[in-house]
């Protein structure tokens, strides 16, 4: 199954990327995210490239710890 992710590829730049997921294993559950949010306190500064807690950011960065599935 393919997974589509919104990644921060560099400061002020995001892109959709596609990754192949392995099949779920025993006792695992695969859910599909239908909506996500970008946190204005944690993720927005990373996207803008002005995160004071990370003065030398490395990319790509993942988004979407706030998801609805």
Overall description:
The protein is mainly beta and 69 residues long. It is built from one helix and five strands; from the N terminus they run βββαββ. The strands form two sheets. The protein has a three-stranded antiparallel sheet. It has a two-stranded antiparallel ribbon with strand order 3-5. The model has no long low-confidence stretch (mean pLDDT 90).
Summarize the structure.
With 69 residues, this protein is mainly beta. Helix content is 9%, strand content 36%.
* Radius of gyration based on Cα positions: 14 Å
* SSE pattern: EEEHEE
**Helix share, percent:** under 10%
Q: Give me the secondary-structure category.
A: mainly beta
Query: What's the β-strand tally?
Result: 5
User: What is the arithmetic mean of pLDDT?
Assistant: 90
* Residue fraction in strands: 35-45%
C-alpha termini separation: 16 Å
How does the major sheet shape up?
A: 3 strands, antiparallel
Side-by-side strand order of the widest sheet: 2-1-4
Globally, the shape reads: elongated
| Low-confidence spans | none
The number of helical elements comes to 1
């Amino acid at each position: 199954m393919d997974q589509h992710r919104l990644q921060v590829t560099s400061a002020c730049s995001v892109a959709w990327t596609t990754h192949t997921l392995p099949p779920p294993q025993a006792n695992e559950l695969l859910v599909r995210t239908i909506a996500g949010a970008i946190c204005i306190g944690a993720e927005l500064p990373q996207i803008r490239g002005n995160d004071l807690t990370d003065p030398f950011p490395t990319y790509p960065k993942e988004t979407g710890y706030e998801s609805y599935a």
